[in-house]
Design brief:
The chain is an all-alpha fold. It has one domain: Four Helix Bundle (Hemerythrin (Met), subunit A) (Up-down Bundle). The protein is 61% helix and 0% strand. The protein contains five helices and no strands. Helix 1 runs antiparallel to helix 4, helix 2 crosses helix 3 and helix 2 packs parallel to helix 4. The longest helix is centred in the middle third of the chain and has 23 residues.
Length: 128
């Protein structure tokens, strides 16, 4: 697994990957948000819902830990052997939204992750 020298390097890498990922949805019209194509296992809306779901969970884990709560991964309602059901829950919870709403939610989550990174010490962030 790749390691990072500091917070800025980590955030820059996240930003680079996120910008590349999110730009793929700029050319997809809303009318095709639920279109499934052979080469891809998820529709555009399902793909974004998956990312919104996972980033929301990452933020919840950190919030729970900071509030002294027991962190349940992957979520309070699903175990690791239930990832298919978790992915369906992501779809049911988020994929009905417009592509723009999903992109906005994901951008908000990514910005919150940047804030979370900034709030942690280097030891908390980079040391096991």
């Amino acid at each position: 697994m790749r390691t990072y020298e500091n917070k800025d390097e980590l955030k820059n890498e996240i930003n680079k990957s996120f910008a590349k990922y999110i730009s793929e949805f700029d050319i997809i019209p809303e009318s095709l948000k639920d279109k499934r194509v052979e080469e891809v296992d998820r529709t555009p809306a399902e793909n974004l819902a998956y990312q919104v779901g996972w980033t929301t969970l990452v933020l919840k884990w950190e919030s729970d830990e900071r509030n002294g709560l027991h962190v349940k991964t992957p979520s309070d309602d699903f175990k690791w052997n239930q990832l298919g059901e978790l992915y369906k829950w992501f779809t049911d919870t988020y994929a009905y939204l417009s592509l723009q709403e999903l992109k906005d939610m994901l951008k908000e989550n990514i910005n919150s992750i940047y804030e979370m990174i900034d709030s942690l010490s280097d030891e908390e962030l980079f040391e096991p």
